[in-house]
Each structure stands twice: as structure tokens, then as C-alpha cells.
Design goal:
The protein is globular. It starts with a strand and ends with a helix. Helix 1 crosses helix 7 and helix 5 packs antiparallel against helix 6. The chain has a 5-stranded parallel beta sheet with strand order 2-7-1-8-9, with helices on both faces. A 4-stranded mixed beta sheet has the order 4-3-6-5. It has 8 helices and 9 strands. Strand 5 and strand 6 form a beta hairpin. It has about 200 residues and is an alpha/beta fold. It binds adenosine-5'-diphosphate (ADP) and guanosine-5'-monophosphate. The site of guanosine-5'-monophosphate has 16 residues, from strand 5, strand 6 and helix 4.
């Protein structure tokens, strides 16, 4: 059995990156999918760590070459998940953590029906706006756009497998960890291990 895909989606500012970073430290054999994007780095973001930052024309060439498992335009920028990188990590037995928007979540589920979709919600829209403001990365006009988009995105949580409310950060990280661990304990995912460790004839 190969690795499993966990998809994280949430309105921008909910805390996806914060929670994903904690999970990468606490959960073994979990690889973070580093997306490609045509947007510029923000704050302390680093190329090859947070994203692979490419030009819009390079991104379009990659689309032509079918290099993406999925891609979408979000807030006017292009974002995509490299197929080659995902295949390599899954074949190596790693589970993958992907941070994609709701269009990406839908496309991943279509191609990998066994993927696990997790939606993060802020405790309220007011808190979300506070977090975007406190993060101090986006100017007020961008925050306004993100808030307008948030209400639409939240409707898509109806077709996600799990919902985690990021109010208390430690609790949200714990719940995400529990989802990953529970999925790993499914009988179907333990069958290979059982057949190599126990003779059942
Ligand atoms: P996203 O990746 O979803 O856009 P971030 O992880 O960048 O969101 O988080 C947005 C801001 O909210 C950051 O300043 C982060 O430190 C803060 N934050 C994240 N989770 C919580 C939480 N549970 N309580 C308070 N602040 C939080
Ligand atoms: P940000 O610019 O705040 O990092 O991300 C903006 C949005 O793009 C977020 O909703 C994030 O989940 C989404 N995103 C990041 N990478 C990908 C990707 O590879 N594919 C898709 N579909 N969305 C992505």
C-alpha cells in the first residue's frame, strides 16, 4: 500500500500554514506538498520551502506539459501541485499533506478518491479578519478581497470529510493529528503489515 493524501483547505488566514508546520514536526512519514505559484513571495517565504515561485509564463508552460495533478487560479494568481513530486513521495511510502483551495480539493478527490479532505474553519468571520490583520502581510484591500471570498469558500466545507475549528491552536493541531492517525489505523491500510508479520493460513 502506498502513501495517502491529506488535503487541507480553509479561507486564507484561518491558520492552515501554522497547523501544517506543526504537523510536519509532530507526525512521522508525512511530507508537505510544495506547490508552484505565479505569485511573489510574501514576508519571510522562501523559494523551494513555502512554494516554488515561478513566472506566469513558466507556470503556463507547465500546464501545457501536463505537469500538474491539479491547478487553479486563486485571488488572481496561479497555484498548482506537481504530479511528479507527489508520485515520488507517495511511492516512497510517505503520506502527503497538501494545502490547496477548494477547487484543488475537489480535483484531488476526483483523481484520488481515497484522499482525505480536511476543512479548517475560523471560530468566526470577525476572528478571521483579525488574524489576517494581525498577520500583517496583506494590505486592507487584499484583506477585503479575502474576506469576500471566505464566505463562498466556507460553503464548500459540506463536501469535505473532516471539519476542524481552529479556535484554540493546540486543540486544532491535536485534532488534525488524530484525523491522520485514525486514517492510518484503518484496517485496509494495515493489511500489508498483517500479511508480512503474521501467517494466517
Ligand atoms: P493560512 O495559512 O490559513 O492563511 P496562517 O497560518 O498564516 O493562515 O495564520 C494566519 C494568522 O493567524 C497568523 O498570524 C497565525 O499566527 C495566526 N493564527 C493561526 N492559528 C491561530 C489560533 N488558533 N489563534 C490565534 N491566532 C492564530
Ligand atoms: P496564499 O497565497 O495565501 O499562500 O494561498 C492562497 C490560496 O491558494 C489558499 O487557499 C491555498 O490553499 C491555495 N493554494 C496553495 N497552493 C495551491 C495549489 O497547489 N493548488 C490549489 N488549487 N490551491 C493552492
Amino acid at each position: 500500500m502506498t502513501g495517502q493524501i491529506f488535503v487541507f483547505s480553509a479561507p486564507s488566514g484561518t491558520g492552515k500554514s501554522t497547523i501544517a508546520e506543526a504537523l510536519m514536526e509532530r507526525v512521522e512519514a508525512l511530507a508537505y506538498s510544495i506547490s508552484h505559484t505565479s505569485r511573489r513571495p510574501r514576508g519571510s517565504e522562501q523559494d523551494g520551502v513555502d512554494y516554488h515561485f515561478v513566472t506566469r509564463s513558466t507556470f503556463k508552460e507547465m500546464i501545457e506539459q501536463n505537469a500538474f495533478l491539479e491547478w487553479a487560479e486563486v485571488y488572481g494568481h496561479l497555484y498548482g501541485t506537481s504530479l511528479a513530486a507527489i508520485n515520488a513521495q507517495i511511492s516512497a511510502g510517505f503520506d502527503i499533506l497538501m494545502d490547496v483551495d477548494v477547487q484543488g480539493g475537489r480535483n484531488v478527490k476526483k483523481q484520488f478518491p481515497e484522499s482525505v479532505l480536511i476543512f479548517l474553519l475560523p471560530p468566526s468571520l470577525e476572528t478571521l479578519e483579525d488574524r489576517l490583520t494581525t498577520r500583517g502581510i496583506d494590505d486592507p484591500s487584499v484583506i477585503k478581497k479575502r474576506m469576500a471570498q471566505a464566505s463562498k469558500e466556507i460553503k464548500s466545507c459540506s463536501w469535505y470529510d473532516y471539519i476542524i475549528i481552529n479556535d484554540d491552536l493546540e486543540k486544532a493541531i491535536y485534532e488534525a493529528q488524530c484525523v491522520i492517525m485514525s486514517e492510518r489505523c484503518r484496517r485496509v491500510r494495515r493489511m500489508d503489515w498483517i500479511s508480512t508479520h503474521f501467517k494466517t493460513s
